[in-house]
Amino acid sequence: MPRRRFPEWLVLLLPAFIVIAAVVLIPLIFSLYSSFTPYKLTRPSTLWRWVGTYNYEKILTDAKFWAAFGRTVLFLTIALNLELILGLGIALMVNKVTWGQRTLRTILMFPMMFSPILVGFQFKFIFNDNIGLVNNVLQSLGSNTALPWLVDGKLAMFSILFAEIWMSTSVFAILILAGLFAMPRDPLEAAKVDGCTAWQTFRHITLPFLMPFIFIAMTIRSLDVARAYDIVQIMTGGGPARRTELLWTLMSRTGYVDARMGLANAMGYVSIILSILFTIYFFRKLSAARAELGMAG
Amino acid sequence: MTEVTLSNVVKNYGAHRAVHGIDLDIQHGEFVVLVGPSGCGKSTTLRMIAGLEAISGGDVSIGGRIVNDLPPRERNISMVFQNYALYPHMTVRENLGFSLAIKKKAPEEIIAAVDEAAAILGLDELMDRKPAELSGGQRQRVAMGRAIVRHPDVFLFDEPLSNLDAKLRTQMRVEIKKLHQKVGNTIIYVTHDQVEAMTLADRIVLMQDGHIVQVGTPLELFDKPVNTFVATFIGSPPMNLIDGIVRGDNAVELHAPSSGGLHGGLTIPLPSTARGRVSDGQAIKFGFRADNLMPMGHAVEEGGERTELDLPVTLTEPLGTETLLFTEVAGTEVQAKMYNPRPVRPGETLKFQLMLDKCHIFDAATSNAIRG
To answer: Is some CB atom of chain A closer than 8 A to the CB atom of B103?
Structure first.
């Protein structure tokens, strides 16, 4: 009996196909499908009830969802901009250091080495209104009130942002520093001879050269921040009273606490748009900045 | 008037001294080339004049003003770099106008200056391109254009042609010389290539190990090298040098370097220019250029001091109008030249004429020239 043989290319590619299907494709299709059902984790049979776009319609008219969406965009905007400014400043200063620069670079990476959960706990302690470091310092400086750092909506957002920026500014600093190391020295010297002050050299020569590096950092960090969950969950849990609710805390609450997985998946698909938009935006900017420098692509 | 004066200029890198107190006066409108092997301190000297390196000692003055502590932008100089150093994100037009734009000059003034520079260097077609879209020679022209738009007091060139291929280098060399004739500014030019130095310079400054060895016109350095370093650095092929010992008043015995003069070498007459300046038994280096050792009957003008030698040819290098002949004199390989080339077989022995009045005698101990 002649054995049926698969073509060689298929046999060679098959393991890859199987792995990708198992870890990416099937979960993706499953989650997309379940977003069209009223799937509840506690009642598995609901998985087989098709409700069409009901979940999506519900989300689009849900004020809580859009509040979380808007808050996430705001959070992202503030975090990215501050991290950029601080990271740029740090990178420029570290670049000037001539002695002990390697050590400094290593120290710079320390915040990235902590688990975000631990960072969350640490700042939860620092900002605690009774025993926290910040309030203790304020009170020993003569303030009589205990500021509700993690309770007041605005202060709580500030505290979370502070923790996020503390943890991730070094991403910008390291990438921009890499850019500064890669920068050719000649145009800087030419600019000096051409009559530039230090600020003009930075503004007209250094910064345009760094833009591709900045946009790479922006792309990475925008994806990172758009899925911010751990720090928020630990510090405030999205509360109090949803004052610090971001997309992912809302989704995890809907999916795992309320067990409405179908709805949570639908939220996931809507909020992915945010990440896609940011990625497209920064990639366009990246290509433009590279074209500006005469690099390929 | 913008003379550039260096007096006792020193540069230290930590404990290492790169430039050892050099003195140099450069006249207004002069084209001066600093030349020397790599690591001789020529680029460091140029960068000190530009203000890109701090001066460890001495004074640099431009137009009578001491500029030691002034930043580059206050020295009214412009510089052309080896790697062109164009601003990659700007078009040619923006590159040219940048120095004027940051000085907040009026737009009409910038356009006029940029157009003038573009016309001088033939850049009109390239104005809207980015540096990445230009060839090496075009980039170099833009770099020069960027230097001239500002009408600086002094142009500094730091090995501007080293990144170009041989043909383009020759072409750009001519353009630089034409540029100097057109704008007439003081130019200080650094190169390691003696051909560039010879062809471009009004005056050559030859440096070695952070010292100035000789300053002079190209022909002065070529015809009257102060020591064996200058003799072998300037001119192509380099000057032939053979060890020798003075015998009596009017003879010199040439010998191979290893023999130490013990075995009888080749004895030839001592050139009359050296007579009375050397003593019997003095160790010398006997130098002559390839042009001064020619086969009989090959464009050697009549008269002058001559001596005839029968030498075997080991190798030939035909160059078209002339042919280099490799041969051996007293165990030392030397190069001779032949005009009106004809085929020469390796191993063939020819009768050569050595023009004694064009030969150079150097003291073997100090390497310095012995000359009237």
So the answer is: yes
